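tmp note - Xylose transport system permease protein XylH
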Amino acid sequence: MPVGGVNAPVPVAPDATPAVDPRLIVRQEGIAGYLGEFRRRVSSGELGSLPVVLALIVIWAVFGSLNSSFLSAQNLSNLSQQIVGTGMIAIGVVFVLLLGEIDLSVGSVSGLCAAIFAVLDVTHGVNQWVALICAILSGTMIGLLHGFFFARVGVPAFVVTLAGNLGWNGLMLQVLGSSGTVNLSGKDIVSRLYSTIYGQQFAAYGLATAAVLLFLGAALLDTRRRRAAGVPYRPVTDIALRTAVLAIVAYLAAYTLNQYKGLPLALLVFLIFIVVLDFVLRRTSYGRQVFALGGNIEGARRAGINVPWIRMSVFMICSTMAAIGGLFLAAQIQSASQTSGGGNLLMNAIAAAVIGGTSLFGGRGSTWSALLGALVIGSILSGMNIQGLSNAFQFMITGAVLLAAVVIDSLARRTQKAAGRA
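out:
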């Protein structure tokens, strides 16, 4: 037994090198440390959004070289509007995937809620806001029903939502009635949300400026709090680098939009949903519980997390976002019909979430995955339409990209396990 008892300090050789927490490398070495930390993360399988960003660059470079109109301001501006409907649905899918589950009903739910709004507004003359709220709440209640059977009854989510996919599609046909199609007036609130474009240049540049300042302020505030608490924090050089990259992307996007018509309101609404729900996931106890449940359900249960409620709430969010996405898709084609929510919408929404970086195995993802994944899928569809390729090629290429995303996710998880970080 060492002198001084069991709590006596262990002597350290004078020339010994003190151990350094690997999380502090970037804080100690500035930009060089940041690059070293980036290499360490990539080598250990923590790829983040890197694969999808590289894929997007390659897709744009290929289609841009094949046809210059692909990278035109008009096409990119139209693309930013066209991805909103699918992207909104993909945001909800991200929440379900974070639990390691799946929702196969989002397509039918989006079509049903769009039909509810159209019938109430056009056929029955209900106040537009009332019709809008009823349509969105219908999606919320559908998610509550799915979550109840999954979390309380114990029916697998795959089976519950597969049954919902069939049932809600049938209910949509019943709501639409014998005509099968209800055309929107074009002056309703949903159509205006989709079609409104702010032509003043300060709108797009103002949004870019607000995004940069918001990011910078949040980063500095987080650094101050961490420094006060005595925990690792990002240095000013790191924050400045990240802010500069964001500013370049934001102002380039604003410049491109202003070269055509301006800032689409639909894109603005989409970004607001992404930022708000990302805050919910990253900065609230509820979001931490969602990640905890997706990472280790038994550990989350033992930690006192209300597992059934979290599961039910996630499906409620997913169906609510499906309803909102369905409304934007209806506004895009100016009608709700028997084909609403059908076709490859379900696959595109799930693919957007997965391609964007959300893991199918749960516990890893972000609402920004919906934006990145929707951009990838939308860019592929837009580029192939410009080239005049058939739907057959579109399906095959999109399927190949989805498979590649899942393979990368699986390999990344294997690498993380090998590095002891999973």
